Amino acid sequence: MEAQGSEKVGKCCSASRRSGAGNLSAIDVVYPGSQTIDVPMVQLPGSKFLMGTDYPKGFAADGEGPVRSVILTPFAIDVVPVTNESFAEFVQSTGYKTDAERFGWSFVFWNLIPESRFQQLVTDTVAEAPWWCQVPGANWKNPEGPGSSIESRLDHPVVHVSSRDAEQYARWTNKELPSEAEWEYAARGGLTQKLYPWGDELQPDGKHLCNIWQGEFPKRNTADDGWLGTCPVRAFTPNNFGLYSIAGNVWEWTADWFGVQHPKHETTDPRGPRTGSGRVMKGGSFLCHESYCNRYRVAARTQNTPDSSTSNLGFRCVRRLKTSDR
């Protein structure tokens, strides 16, 4: 896959294009805030919380720690990730073309591709993560490539969107992508230093509370939680702030550049490095598994290049509150 201008990032987490692959020019901001889509948001007050984790079974190399005190000013956040239905409204109104459409291909996880069409659809795989397949024609409206559609998945999170696509949608709706700190605070739902949005036990009383991988990754997914790929954004119980699909289902882009050095002193509204090669992604996806990649924990994080798109990567938006809104 190296010849195709891509490389693995986090293996099961997602696959990435090298920045600039295909010589696509950067997208100009041509869709200024002009539309308000009726997507419910939750207003969160300014608050102090403990960000990060020192969890011994986490991924220290990802920069999950140290635990640090963070103060956030008030903001509002989407109750659910952006859905196929909402993204379709954006495209219909603006004529926007996503990076996947401009490149002409995107990454699809192997077991989502019909076996009878695998040889026809797949042109290459990622060398170090062969479960990621390059599929020409795969994009947000054709998630598994030509012949697939979102008609029965309008309430699922939109996927195959790059960070640049997400930013354009956010601007169109007069919103922004969340900072990593905002995303993590919202995901924790008011709980302090818990592993998951609901506590420290993955399946309390044996109940599935998120859409992740069951079985042996990447060979067999038993889909015991009811879903092989993405699921409706409200399929599982929300956290204490009323946010749905905050763990598993799809990774969510944030606005921050990825870095692993964090200030140990208390900070207010922290942001990532000023520049970088990858944007922070949070939340894990339907591909995460405890034995391989337990990055569905609220403090877990990974990265991808801003032009990358995969079948397990979406986003949600925030609106920072003005003084008069608080």
In short:
With 326 residues, the protein is α+β, with helices and mostly antiparallel strands. It is built from five helices and 17 strands.
Note poorly predicted spans: 1-9, 19-23
Mean pLDDT: 90
CATH class: Alpha Beta
Estimate the global geometry from the Cα principal axes. Answer: globular
Number of domains: 1
The main sheet orders its strands as 15-14-12-16
**H/E element string?**
EEEEEEHHEHEEHHEEEEEEEE
Radius of gyration, whole Å: 18 Å
Largest sheet, in brief, is: 4 strands, mixed
CATH superfamily: paralog of FGE (formylglycine-generating enzyme)
CATH architecture: Alpha-Beta Complex
Secondary-structure-derived class: alpha+beta
User: Helical stretch count?
Assistant: 5
How many angstroms separate the termini? 49 Å
Which features does this protein show?
alpha+beta; four-stranded mixed β-sheet; three-stranded antiparallel β-sheet; 17 strands; disordered N terminus
Written description of the protein model:
It is a single chain. Helix content is 12%, strand content 21%. The protein has 326 residues and is α+β, with helices and mostly antiparallel strands. The chain has one domain (2-325): paralog of FGE (formylglycine-generating enzyme) (Alpha-Beta Complex), CATH 3.90.1580. It starts with 5 loop residues before the first strand and ends in a 6-residue tail after the last strand.
